[in-house]
Amino acid sequence: QVQLVESGGGLVQAGGSLRLSCVASGRIFSGYAMGWFRQAPGMEREFVTTINWSSGIAYYVDSVKGRFTVSKDNAKNTVYLQMNSLKPEDTAVYYCAAGAGSGSNLYLPRRASTYNYWGQGTQVTVSS
């Protein structure tokens, strides 16, 4: 079992920055993918980024490329999401997720249904 706890959300003005953290309890095995999703009111949960726990290879949705950076600290069992140049349309609850893959260093799933474990979410609000 893996439990995920997000933190770091808050209220920020457009153009500002926030760093989200996701701490995992329980063992994250090689080949796992750690993803970030977001859900705005009345909208479906949206993929943001994912990072392979072993290789560190990451994939981003086009709307955040160049602004968001995902990183990991294996020793701390923690994944980070650095969000710069924030826009009002980034406002959402952000969720961390862990997906057990096949062990591949290229495992980078983008569908929410692929992930096995989810955090409780952290609110990010960007004011204009």
Rg, nearest Å: 14 Å
Instruction: List low-pLDDT spans.
Output: none
Shape annotation: globular
Give the termini distance in whole angstroms.
40 Å
Query: What class do helices, strands and sheet pairing give?
Result: mainly beta
Average pLDDT number: 94
Question: Roughly how much helix do the residues carry, as a percent range?
Answer: under 10%
Count of distinct strands: 11
Q: Characterize the main sheet.
A: 7 strands, mixed
Q: In what range is the share of β-strand residues?
A: over 45%
Total of helices: 0
Give, in order, the helices and strands. EEEEEEEEEEE
Task: Please tell me about this protein's structure.
The chain has 128 residues and is mainly β. It has no helices and 11 strands. It has strands at 3-7, 10-13, 18-25, 33-39, 46-52, 58-60, 68-73, 78-83, 92-99, 117-118, 122-127. Strands 2, 4, 5, 6, 9, 10 and 11 form a 7-stranded mixed beta sheet that branches. Strand 4 and strand 5 (46-52) form a beta hairpin. The protein starts with a strand and ends with a strand. The mean pLDDT is 94.
Any chance you could write out the topology, listing elements then pairs?
Blueprint: E1 3-7, E2 10-13, E3 18-25, E4 33-39, E5 46-52, E6 58-60, E7 68-73, E8 78-83, E9 92-99, E10 117-118, E11 122-127
Parallel strand pairs: 2-11
Antiparallel strand pairs: 1-3, 3-8, 4-5, 4-9, 5-6, 7-8, 9-10, 9-11
In a nutshell, what does this entry contain?
The protein is 0% helix and 48% strand. With 128 residues, the protein is an all-beta fold.
